[in-house]
Amino acid sequence: MIENLSLFQLVVILFASGALLGLFSRNSRFTRILTFVPTMIGSFFTVIFSVSVILENPFQLIVPNLLPFINLEIKVDGIAAFFLLLISIVSFAVSLYSIGYSKEYEAKKRTSVFGFLFNIFILSMILVVASNNSFFFLIFWELMSLTSFFLVIYDHDKEENVKSGLTYLIMTHFGTAFIFASFLLGYIQTGSFSFDAFRNSSSSFPLLTKNLIFLFAFIGFGTKAGIVPLHIWLPQAHPSAPSNVSALMSAVMIKIGIYGIVRTVFDLSGFGLSPEYSWWGILMIAVGSVSAIIGVLYAVIEHDIKRALAFSSIENIGIILVGLGLSVVFASFNLTTLSALALIASMYHTMNHSVFKGLLFMGAGSVVYATHTRNMEHLGGLIKKMPWTALLFLIGTISIVGLPPFNGFISEWLIMQALLSSYQIPSIILQISIAFASLPFALTIGVAAATFVKLFGISFLSRPRSETIAKIKEVPRSMIAGMSILAAACILLGVLPFLGISVITSAFHISSQPINPFDAITLQNSFGKSFANLSMPVVVIMLLSVTIAIFGFIKVIGGKTKKITFSTWDCGFGNLNERMEYTGTSLSQPIRVVFKTLFKSHTQIQREFFGDHKYILRTLKVESFSKNIFEEKLYLPIISSSIFIFDKIRKIQTGKINAYLLYIMITIVLLLLFVRLSHNV
Amino acid sequence: MYSMAEIIIGIIQGLVIILLSPLITGIMRKTKARTQKRMGASVLQPYYDILKLIKKDEVVSDQSSWIFRICPWVNFVSLATAAFFIPLFLTYSPFGLAGDLLLVIGLFALARFFTMLASLDVASAFGGLGSSREMMYSALLEPALFLTIFIVALTHGGTNLSTLITAVSGATLLPHPQLIFAAIAMFVIVLGETGRLPFDNPSTHLELTMVHEAMILEYSGKSLALIEWSQAIKLLILLVLVVNIFVPWGISSSITILALGIGFVLLVAKISILATFIAYFESSIAKWRLFRIPDLVAVAIASSMIGIILYYIK
Amino acid sequence: MESTQLSILTISGSILIIATFSVVARRGFMDWLNAYRHQSIVLAGVTAIIGYITGIWEIYIAAALTLIVKSIIIPKVLTQVTKRLEIEFKTETNPYVSLRTSVIISALLVGLSYFLTQQIPFRSDPVVNVLLPVSMAQFFIGLFVLVNRRTVLSQVVGLLIIENGLFLFTMVLTHGVSLIIEIGIFVDILVGIVISSILLFRMSRTFDSLDVTNIENLRDD
User: Fold this and answer.
1) Which of C8, C14, C111 has the CB atom closest to B181's CB atom?
2) Whether A462 and B121 lie within 8 Å, measured CB to CB
3) CA angle B182, B187, B190 (to 5 degrees)
4) Which of residues 75-104 of B touch A (CB under 8 A)?
5) A229 cis-preceded (ω within 30 degrees of 0)
6) Nearest CB to C11 within list B177, B295, B305
7) Which residues, numbered 230 to 289 in chain B, qualify as contacts with chain A under a Cβ-Cβ cut-off of 8 Å?
8) Pairwise CA distance, residues A545 & A403, whole Å
9) What percent of chain A clears pLDDT 70, i.e. is strictly above it?
């Protein structure tokens, strides 16, 4: 315990010092190192801290009466330690990456403020996860939202960044209001802000209270996580922020929303193993499936790299919620082993998503650093100029699509097995609905593959589509080093899935037999025969041996052959240039046409002819637009009706002093009347 | 655990799939030729083609990168590895301890992903063409495939192929009704995954009708040999799965030489009949317009949805 | 009730569902007519199986009637009448819901009919058990086709599928006791088809279109 305490204090000191060093050092040459190295060291110690909490015991710290009547309570149990591990691994890699990346902003000489905000942001996320008291939870939550808001509008020269920052600010406060309401209900029932009080008496709350606590927490934390339809801030804020901040936000901050949901459902809300709670899980599965399919469909038609990655984050949050919802539904029917399976699947996917989304955003940041554009229609051929970035980005892409032998496959396999196990639920309607819910889930996986083929293929492969690409170079080594850490994690979690699973089972106190990292994952059906088996290390060995075998075979049979390099086959045309390649828009066109009711895209064509002939074209301009139906059908009506109502209310502000004095008089009279009349009762 | 003999038989099953696959492709081509009133090449022609291509020089595009070069190897390795998980003439495979049906589908996806990337690598319009169409097909077929696996796995008790096929081989003569619907969906999926008509014409090189051929247009020499071979392996894996799940009678459940021999002979016969039927079916229809394909996939999805309903309402 | 008979019953019910789907998933009048003919043949087969299982010989007569009237006479009448129509009336104008979505909606309707028949207290009779949801599914799918299509010609499709569903429904519940009523319904349908074909022909000549939405022009605005 002592060791954990000193580790925790060390971590806080390190982040704080990084922040202050960043703020006070105006000399830009050393600012980068001074700001980000303490972050790296702090993240490293956080990793050690969280692993020690997972392996041994929970850590608790109470600072009494920090504010009048309210204690600062810190409690890091297994769930919090797991999320701390995610935060720390990603922030270690991202801070290493930032040492090189901040060079881009050095010209503007604001790296000091950036370093300050960056460190406070990570520290606030750590403290949110570690909080055991709803008051301080909300304080650190608000701190996290504010620092991320300032980081999003860091590049405030562009007006669109400011607009996205404002959208983000409004939506996150909307969510915070719901979280506050949820905690308030708990306070009303227990009379205390502490989570321990909630835990102890939550099973005796009335059912309506429990349902409301869950619902408000789901809406509030879900806004931060990015569920549909509360997601509109995500595709605006994540691209506007600097890429290292986007990496942190997408990989870690939205997981804090998931942390909130997990904490509320499994710990604080008095969830019981009875079917009346199954609607919680059903709601999560429904929202998750919708988020997944909407997220990925908008990702595939997007030509801004970072916005496509942001939509992909919405998709993955949807998948995580499907797994969590399944876990809740299984638990409500007392199928505890299946519930554990679904929870492991969901948390594994959380871990995987942090790792590969951080990697992908860092890769996108490297692309922006080198080429100064986010639009993939202007890119191309980057694999030859930036080979390391391309390789690491490819690893991230293979992982997110869920291909063996990397980590995405393991978590998707686990979620599919959880979906298949739904046949054990004793309600036919639920069985059939969950089976049908796996339809959008499978479609999501297919379209996600399409999205990332487009993303990687158009940006990195084929010919460069503009002249600026010809002069770019590979990015600084620190950026590549940061990315390689997460890429190594992807590979490790893919080939040795039991590393990840054992972390989750010990963190969440799920019992399992002692295992070694090379075991297979085994599931059994009701006849005692094996339902499914997966042993990734064996599969990797098989892949390698087949590679060696076929290589030898071809060498023996084929003998010596030459490879001649020549231009791409062009049907004799002879003049292939970059205008003849496929663009990103054309690559996703078939999918766009199939789902055209969702996208409502329309095309505008303008033609200019030579002289008066209507047959010889001089110029042809084609523009194609897709609308964002959520903004149009859901938010705009709400916003315009709110503005309408506010306009009407504004009539109260007449500007005349007499009117305001009249308001004061009326209020005093009404209050006194109220007091007088309530005494009669 | 499995005995040495069983492990050897497991390896042999995989090798048989890898080595037998060009023959099945040859049978399909011969059948198509005969229905078109041509003599057609011999059924062993794909073997001769592959051996010839391995010995030839390659021409590589100057725009391409290492992804183009590595793609044929990734294709072959992932599909050949998938072949080891499929029980062929024995109801189980010792490799079932390491992987199941979902892993096989994942390996298919790995091969397809790299092919789509490599086609974009060569900076020609054909590659983008094939890639965009293949993206649409594979995305739409995923739901149908998953629901069909759902039906089959739930009816027979697992996605582990050994458990699945062992359970199937002990079933009665009359199929469960949900399996009829699963079979319909599976037929459409097999046509789509292997790029047969009406999804794609495997013998055309016109840009109007190419999907898979467009993606591999630039390949030559060893790489082309590997890719052609991988396609044949994928076709055979899917045919074996269809036969062994839906028409399993004759597969052997013990490792005696006699049972294995009978199982092998019956399997080759059933696969040849299925391949001939598919080739005959292909000869009787044309390639569909690209945006009519979702209608066909919708039929597969609807069929598997009804299968699920029938399974649960039993 | 032996289990093989039960399996045969279930499989024949499944084939009937497949045949109904093949009627929905078609464009074009001639395709539809062929599919309808196949569906009627399957229906006759299912009726014969019911007759075999329950052992009532009158059901065989109903099966033979179905075969003759629905798979031979009605298609013949319809082809004769529509031969004189212009070609463009025979191909489908766009329905309200596209073909692929209507296929999936039909699958959901099958699920709905299975769900609705869960509560019916005829559990002891396996014929009812298996084939009642199938008949209700046919009824719903026919109704959906009726709602979805814009031309009168294809709405006749829906009508005939509904009739098939109702026929199976009564057959399953009453086991052919009221055979006279069955014969009456057959004659009804036959006459109805003849009359509607004549009307179709007249409509196409007078209004030059079979589009149902033209009725909106009668609205008083």
Assistant:
1) C14
2) yes
3) 120
4) 76-78, 80-81, 84, 95-100, 102-103
5) yes
6) B177
7) none
8) 19
9) 92
Q: Which residues pair with A617 in a beta bridge?
A: A609
Tokens 């190419």 correspond to: B210
- Site from B140, B174, B176, B246 to mutate, C interface, most C CB atoms within 10 angstroms: B174
Residues of chain B with Cβ-Cβ distance to C21 below 8 Å are 299, 302-303
| pLDDT value at residue A2 | 52
Q: What is the pTM of this model?
A: 0.89
Contact across the interface for C10 and B177, Cβ inside 8 Å: yes
* DSSP assigned state of A265: I
What is the distance in angstroms between the Cα of C142 and the nearest Cα belonging to chain A? Answer: 23
| Chain B interface includes A377 (CB < 8 A) | no
Chains touching C by CB (3 or more pairs below 8 Å):
A, B
Task: Look up the ipTM and state it.
Answer: 0.93
* Alpha-carbon distance values, A200 to A149, A183, A192, A216, A461 (Å): 36, 15, 11, 20, 57
Backbone angles phi, psi at B2, to 5 degrees: -100, 150
Backbone angles phi, psi at A197, to 5 degrees: -65, -40
Q: Which residues of C touch A (CB under 8 A)?
A: 111, 115, 118
Q: Hey, what are C44's tokens? A: 């006759």
pLDDT at A253 over 90: yes
Residue C147: partners with Cβ closer than 8 Å, 6 or more residues away: C96, C158
Q: Is the dihedral of CA C123, C128, C129, C133 positive or negative?
A: negative
Residue A608 amino acid letter: E
B81 φ/ψ angles, rounded to the nearest 5 degrees? -65, -40
Residues from chain C that touch B184, judged by Cβ atoms under 8 A, are 18
Question: Which residues in chain A are contacts of B124 at CB distance < 8 A?
Answer: 568-570, 576, 580-581
Residue type present at position A167 = T
Q: What is the pLDDT of residues B95-118, one digit of tens each?
A: 877 788 999 999 999 999 999 999
Return the residue matching tokens 């490293």: A44
